[in-house]
Structure formats: C-alpha cells, structure tokens
Design goal:
The complex is a heterodimer of chains A (132) and B (117). Chain A is α+β, with helices and mostly antiparallel strands and 132 residues long. Chain A has one domain. Chain A has 5 helices and 5 strands. In chain A, strands 3-2-1-5-4 form a 5-stranded antiparallel beta sheet, with helices on one face. In chain A, β2 and β3 form a beta hairpin. In chain B, 28% of the residues are buried. Chain B is globular and about 40 Å long. Chain B contains 4 helices and 5 strands, in the order βββαββααα. Chain B is of the alpha+beta class and 117 residues long. The chains are: A alpha+beta (132), B alpha+beta (117). At the A-B interface, β1, β2, α1, β4 and β5 of A face β1, α1, β4 and β5 of B.
C-alpha cells in the first residue's frame, strides 16, 4: 500500500516538515521518496495544499508519529506537486515581486495558487513557471 | 484549539499535546502514544504554521470536547506504564468516553499508579 505521510521535524528551535512517499509492505515501511519544503512561502502553500485532504495521525516504523494524508487517487500527483513546489521555492518570492511583468492572465494563475492552493491550481502554477 | 507536535530524541520521538498559552503534556511510551493517536483521530486534524511553536504543528479541532480531551490526555500520561495486553483487553475503540473509562479503571485497579513493565 502506498501512502503519503508528513513528519514534523524540530531542529534547534526551528520546526518544519518533511513529506514522505511510503510503501507499507507488511509491517515494514519502505520510503520511496521525501521532500522537505524549506522556505516560508513553500511551507505555507504546501500546508494549505495538504489541508485539502483528510489527515490522521499514525505511527510508522522508523519515522515515528506522522500525519497520514488520505489523498486517494491524487497521491502521486500531490507528491510530484510538492516536489516541484520545493524545486521552485527560491523563485516564488521573485515571481511575486515581478507581478507587474506577468500580465493579468499569468498573474491570475499565481493569485489562485495563494488564494486557493488546490492540486489543480498548483499544477497550473507549475506549468506556468516550468512550461517544459 | 489543541495543538500536537512531535519532538525527536536520540532513540525515540515523543508526541506533545498543548493548549496554546496554557499547559502541555508530552507522551513518550508507545502504548500511551497509540491511545492518544486513536483519540485525536476522532477529530478533524489540520496542519498549521504557528510562530509560537516555531513552525508547523497539527491543530486538533475538538470543539466542545477540547477541555475534556486535554484533561483525559493529562490523566493518561500520569498513569504508570501500560501493557499492550491490558490495553487490548480493556479499551476497545479509543473514543473519549472509552478512554475516560479506561483511565478511571486503571487508577482503580492500580491505586493511582502502576508498577507494570
């Protein structure tokens, strides 16, 4: 069974979280990938994106207490979106600053990302920022 | 509103339940943690960035159960170690009512503490 889990990480007075893609085969979890959003803008967008799905607490071997994200069929797309948001992280501030250069259609995509960060709106933003 | 977050130690991770601006309860044992996790999963959970906790935490929307839920977690933490066998035999579904009964029975049986390993 594949699942997405969020582990809150405390590091010298600063907290962040890491999103893991985990395959649970029997009792042992197999971590297939992880992303750790680091900037405050990425953390905010990813937090609101994950809150679109039901969350529950669970204990996973090796990882300890985690939040499991019940994303159903969105699971793979959601994990990829978090990965891309992390890669685009340093650009997010820059994109906001360049508002006047974006044009109204492209700014609308950016506005939607911050106002309503659904998976669909995040995908539209990723396509805009990273057309290839 | 109640808040939950994890703290890493050298060989384990604890789970802390906090009433912002008031008290906190830190849960260490795996059995107690399992009970608290089952209990919190009865409510809506969401992630939130809270500067007073230096980052993201889990927010528990417990509504009118909030005070009772926090008191129950406090009392559960005050109990001595709980054997898994005892948990399986006595608890059932980890609803707030069942956990309150479990804590009361455990206090009655152990006389306010436990020497169980």
């Amino acid at each position: 069974m594949l699942t997405l889990v969020v582990r809150i990480v405390h590091d010298e007075g600063y907290a962040s979280f890491e999103v893991f893609k985990v395959k649970i085969d029997g009792k042992m979890p197999w971590v297939q990938g992880s992303v750790k959003p680091s900037g405050s803008v990425e953390l905010e967008v990813v937090t609101r994106l994950l809150n679109n799905y039901p969350l529950r607490l669970a204990i996973v071997d090796v990882l300890g207490p985690v939040l499991a994200v019940d994303a159903g069929k969105d699971e793979d797309g959601l994990f990829r979106a978090v990965e891309k948001l992390q890669e685009l992280g340093p650009m997010l501030f820059h994109i906001i600053e360049k508002r006047q250069d974006l044009g109204s259609t492209r700014w609308e995509v950016v506005r939607q990302l911050f106002e309503k960060p659904t998976l669909e709106n995040v995908k539209k933003f990723i396509k805009l920022a990273w057309p290839c | 509103m109640l808040v939950a977050y994890t703290l890493d130690y050298k060989n384990h991770t604890s789970l802390t339940i906090s009433k912002p601006g008031h008290r906190s309860v830190e849960i260490h044992g795996p059995v107690k943690m399992e009970i608290v996790i089952g209990l919190l999963n009865n409510y809506r959970l969401r992630l939130k960035y809270m500067p007073m906790y230096s980052g993201p935490v889990i927010v528990v929307d417990a509504g009118e159960d909030e005070d009772e839920l926090f008191r129950t977690v406090e009392k559960l933490q005050e109990l001595g170690p709980i054997r898994r066998k005892v948990l399986d035999e006595m608890l059932g579904e980890p609803t707030l009512e069942n956990v309150k009964k479990f804590v009361a029975l455990k206090v009655l049986v152990d006389g306010g503490g436990s020497s169980e390993a």
